[in-house]
Amino acid sequence: MKAARIKEKIIFTIFGLATALCVAAFATIAAILLSGLGTIKLEHLTKSALQGGYFEMIIGTLYLLVGSAGIAGPIGLLAAIYLVEYAPRGRLTRVIDQAINNLAGVPSIVIGLFGYTFFCRQLGLGISLAAGWLTLTLMMLPIVIRGSEEAIKMVPKSFQEAALALGAPKWKAITSITLPAAAPGIITSILLGIARVAGETAAILFTSCVLVTRGLPKSPLEPIMALAFNLYVKIVALGEAPERVFGIALILFMIVVIFAAAAITFRVYYRRRQLWLR
Amino acid sequence: MSDMDTLNCHISTQPHKFGIKMLKKLKETTIFLKSLRAEPLGAPAFICASSAIILLLLMLIFIVREGSQAFLNLGAELIIGAVWDTNAGRYGGLPLIYGSIIVVFVALAIAIPIGVASSIFISEILPHPLRDPIKSIIELLASIPSVIYGFIGLLFIAPRIASLFGLSTGTVALTASIILAIMSTPTIVGVAGETIAAVPKEYREAALALGATRWQMIKGIVLPASKSGILASILLGFGRAIGETVAVLMVAGNTAIIPSPPWNILSPVYTLTAAIAMQMGEAAVGSLEYSALFGLGLILFIIAFIVNTLADVVVTREKAKIRGAG
Q1: Domain CATH code at residue A140
Q2: Is some CB atom of chain A closer than 8 A to the CB atom of B305?
Q3: Residue numbers of the domain that contains A219
Q4: How confident is the model at residue B15 (pLDDT cuts 50, 70, 90)?
Q5: Per-residue pLDDT reduced to its tens digit, B250-277
Q6: Rounded to whole angstroms, how far apart are CA atoms B31 and A13?
Q7: Does the complex come out with an ipTM higher than 0.95?
Q8: Residue A250 in contact with residue A199, Cβ under 8 Å?
């Protein structure tokens, strides 16, 4: 019995070390990047790339994120509503379900290849912001669908039943009762989707980015600059030393972590506030 | 005579049964369509949900279309050809497939033990108030973009690998594997943790009531009950790792040669994903190289499809089992 307890202690310690390693990995990465804080000056954020700043890259990245969230958000939400509220049990629903899982698993570089042949060439969008939106939508969609599905499922059935009993049609019950109750979860899923694609490089590599533009794009059909793309090309194609692109890496890291942390805190906070989830 | 009757019966009932089945299907479909029509939200919601199928099919069609020239001209060489040399016009995918596989296997050899151990620790041993914060940090680890992982790899890991093993350059398979291990661990922790947490409380209580220590309970009850979920988490971690592009190509060295000996992880490798990302920019549209890159894309697409479908099957079966038991 005593031997069993000692064995348990040893094993649990090893497991604890494994967990500590994961946490340490994040801490190390954050520490390395934050050590570069001194290399960027605040004025670089608003200075054009032509003068050594980051302005167009930051705005370009935000353009990409807002646009693809604007497409993937509504489509993903409607898809989630269908899957939770309307989908009959059957083969079609199973196939849709598997298609969503598979879409989530397609490597981003393959999504980039598809985006190039389909959006850029077949649809004639060329290397453009719009093509980037559509390509990133493909990556964001499964995350938004799964997250929203989860959020809608968590709203107690009795809420909707009360509305139905009062004579509301189902769609009315969903839009005025279920969705407001699920809103925090839905917003979380969209934020997570944004965090997932904010630093995506492979998918926008051939679909929407160039190294330098003259100012911001004037229409969605123009190519843009993005942080991730610039970081990648400067290191891989132009062979710049990692130390010289510290600023871009740090800004990109902060944008991604802000979105992801916002999503996670939002979720934890609302789980505590929504009494029916306890 | 009686034989004849049975035969007649047989002939007449078969189509009849078939007809009933068809009618039933038709009726189900009309009811389904009607229910969608009755709800203004129904039809658009259905269209959005089915878009996942349509997008996946479009993806397959277009990648096959662009890759068709390579399949016709190269055939099996695209998969088993041992030389990948664009300048010589040789497009044998074997070194790339091998590069992808060795990098991912070493990565998983690191990530699986750490990931599974962490998921057990977080959902079984860690005190409750600490669970959410630790899980959140691991989730943040998953959200770091791959280009930043590549950056960290070049800046921090590659120099250390080089000096540790006395290499002239640190951009080798092992460096890529370490980066990939960090990237796929959160996937494993997340999915495995979910299934471990889903093991019914009664199972644990029964084991503890019989006098088992917590480790005995975990080993004898929790792990067997969640083994398909853990398997699924490993499959998904594999899928994430094999499809990873930018981080790998920044640190793997990108040399399209199978290392000698093949298990030498201290030599540079070139992966499927890296080849596509590096060469798409130069390949002229419609050239054999362009088509071959789409061929590689198709290989990746198929690998991802198989891995995800397997994970799906494993998880669905597990759910059915738990429902049956509960």
Answers
A1: 1.10.3720.10
A2: yes
A3: 44-277
A4: low
A5: 998 888 888 888 888 888 999 999 999 9
A6: 58
A7: no
A8: no
